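From the methods appendix. Each design record in this collection lists the tokenized structure first, followed by the designed amino acid sequence. Records were kept in a plain field format so they could be parsed without special tools. The example shown here is representative of the layout used throughout.

RECORD:
FOLD TOKENS (337 positions):
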């Protein structure tokens, strides 16, 4: 079997997870190099994984033996890192969202479109078993006519560091809810044509001072005529609460749960379960399947399962949400194109 040599750039939360997975769980992948701008982070990751490490992206771009690059640097650095990887002829798996603004996302998409490389965007929920089954049921017609998409996304707390600043992350609609926007258009098999969004920062002074929201509610209108509703809250004392419901004329599907049903504690005071801890636990398997799909696309020379154009569509919805919530009016996606 041919192997694809992989480098992961950015060894934080997402990059560390990708590197672990590429090291041992992706047939056809050979993790060769890990890169970070911090020497300490890069060295520790390289030593832990038993692979080469480097500081800064230059080595990943210059090394001829690297065929695929995973870009897991902060969102506002995606564009320069992806562009230089494409320039060097590498295949790229770039974390979501594509960029921190629609203009930058479009710049990246233009370059990706004219490249021969596989460029995949990290909307890994599409590879989750439950969402996959839901999509299969939709395609098999088991829900009848789709009427409503409903998504609950409650994170335990607001993000820290660079991701707390909407100028670096794109804010709640890009950084957090673009996952739900991607899932909405994927699973409903219909494009979002309009949004009506509200948002506020009622919980955290820091979120407010940086111009982001800690609570947002979004109404979606699909091309098919169906409606959608997405709520995002950046506080959840019981854990990572991520649920999606699809309501059809013949059936309803619910994905996700408030609690982690792997452990139930029952006593005279009641029956209790813990909340889901965080995205790495809930979606680890989806990350594995996503990373395998990326390598399969390279080996079989087929298009990625989540394309740059998918990445851009999710960003357009996020951008429309910012405009809608600031101007307090519904926004047609057509007007953004
Ligand atoms: N798919 C998901 O569910 C998911 C989850 C978390 C993060 N992400 C995405 O992954 C990306 C990274 O987020 P994170 O939470 O892992 O961030 P992080 O802050 O935990 O890690 C980023 C790492 O990149 C390094 N870095 C910064 N600039 C660099 C550069 N130019 N070259 C090399 N290294 C650089 C930093 O030193 C840091 O170690 C973001 O785009 C984020 O949206 C996706």
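DESIGN:
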């Amino acid at each position: 079997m041919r192997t694809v040599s992989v480098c992961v750039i950015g060894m934080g939360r997402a990059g560390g997870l990708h590197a672990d997975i590429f090291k041992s769980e992706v047939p056809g992948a050979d993790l060769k190099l890990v890169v970070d701008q911090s020497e300490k982070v890069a060295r520790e990751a390289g030593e832990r994984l038993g692979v080469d490490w480097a500081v800064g992206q230059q080595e990943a771009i210059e090394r001829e033996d690297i065929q695929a690059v995973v870009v897991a640097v902060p969102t506002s650095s995606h564009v320069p890192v992806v562009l230089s990887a494409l320039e060097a002829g590498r295949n790229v798996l770039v974390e979501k969202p594509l960029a921190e603004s629609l203009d930058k996302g479009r710049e990246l998409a233009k370059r990706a479109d004219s490249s021969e490389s596989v460029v995949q965007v990290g909307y890994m929920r599409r590879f989750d078993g439950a969402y996959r089954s839901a999509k299969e049921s939709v395609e098999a017609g088991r829900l009848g006519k789709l009427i409503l998409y409903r998504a609950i996304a409650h994170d335990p707390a607001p993000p820290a560091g660079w991701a707390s600043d909407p100028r670096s992350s794109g804010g709640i609609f890009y950084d957090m809810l673009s996952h739900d926007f991607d899932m909405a258009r994927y699973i409903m098999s219909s494009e979002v044509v309009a949004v009506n969004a509200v948002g506020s920062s009622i919980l955290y002074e820091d979120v407010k001072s940086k111009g982001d929201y800690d609570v947002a509610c979004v109404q979606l209108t699909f091309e098919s005529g169906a409606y959608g509703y997405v709520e995002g809250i950046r506080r959840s004392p019981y854990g990572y609460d991520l649920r999606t419901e699809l309501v059809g004329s013949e059936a309803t599907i619910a994905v996700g749960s408030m609690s982690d049903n792997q452990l139930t504690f029952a006593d005279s005071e009641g029956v209790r379960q813990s909340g889901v801890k965080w995205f790495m636990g809930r979606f680890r398997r989806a990350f594995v399947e996503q990373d395998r799909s990326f390598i399969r696309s390279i080996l079989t020379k087929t298009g990625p399962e989540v394309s740059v154009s998918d990445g851009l569509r999710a960003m357009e919805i996020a951008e429309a949400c910012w405009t809608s919530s600031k101007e307090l009016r519904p926004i047609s996606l057509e007007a953004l194109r």
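APPENDIX NOTE: The chain is about 40% helix and 25% strand.
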